[in-house]
Specification:
It comes from Planktosalinus lacus. The chain is an alpha/beta fold and 180 residues long. The chain has a single domain, classed as Rossmann fold. The protein has 7 helices and 7 strands; from the N terminus they run βαβααβαβαβαββα.
């Protein structure tokens, strides 16, 4: 049994990416999953002067240790204007400053959603290209389109049958690939 750390890249209290990652974690049956909120690890906006003056916060070190303790990660990234949110980019920037290869050996299931038909695909691709730089490996990814039409908040499930089957397939493949 592997230990999976899961989170959304959003700081919104009504994040649809948090809803999606929460649903995804409920589908994991073969491994231990811990779902966290990145907002529990507040970080100031990165800048070299701030880094020199303040160093690395206890919250950043705690988050890094949580990532290091996990065997694999599940991440759902949001999209703002065609890219990852400033909030999530800031988290990645700080983590890479304290330890550039902060994802060393981590297998990652990366997903995204939005209310639009592209499902956060641009943000997903950006983060997907960045993860290997930090020694992580994206082994599965999924872009979930039109969240409001395809996901029921009251039932906490995907209501589009084709998307549901594809999503479950991705989750099962991820579970299988990290088991070895």
């Amino acid at each position: 049994m592997k230990k999976i750390l899961a989170f959304a890249g959003s700081n919104s209290s009504t994040s649809i990416n948090y809803q999606l990652i929460s649903y995804a974690t409920s589908l994991i049956s073969q491994h231990e999953v811990e779902l966290i909120k990145l907002t529990d690890y507040p970080l100031v906006l990165f800048g070299e002067d701030i880094e020199k003056e303040l160093g690395y916060s206890a919250e950043l070190r705690l988050l890094l240790n949580r990532i290091k303790d996990a065997d694999a990660l599940m991440i759902s990234v949001n999209e703002h204007n065609g890219g990852p949110s400033v909030f999530f980019k800031n988290v990645m920037d700080w983590l890479s400053r304290i330890e550039y290869k902060y994802l060393k050996g981590k297998k990652v299931l990366l997903m995204s959603t939005s209310t639009g038909s592209r499902g956060g695909a641009s943000s997903l691709e950006y983060v997907k290209s960045r993860i290997p730089r930090h020694d992580g490996e994206v082994i599965e990814s999924f872009s979930f389109p039109s969240f409001n039409e395809n996901f029921s908040l009251s039932e906490n499930k995907i209501i589009n049958e084709e998307l549901a089957l594809g999503f479950i397939d991705v989750i099962q493949n991820f579970e299988h690939q990290i088991a070895g």
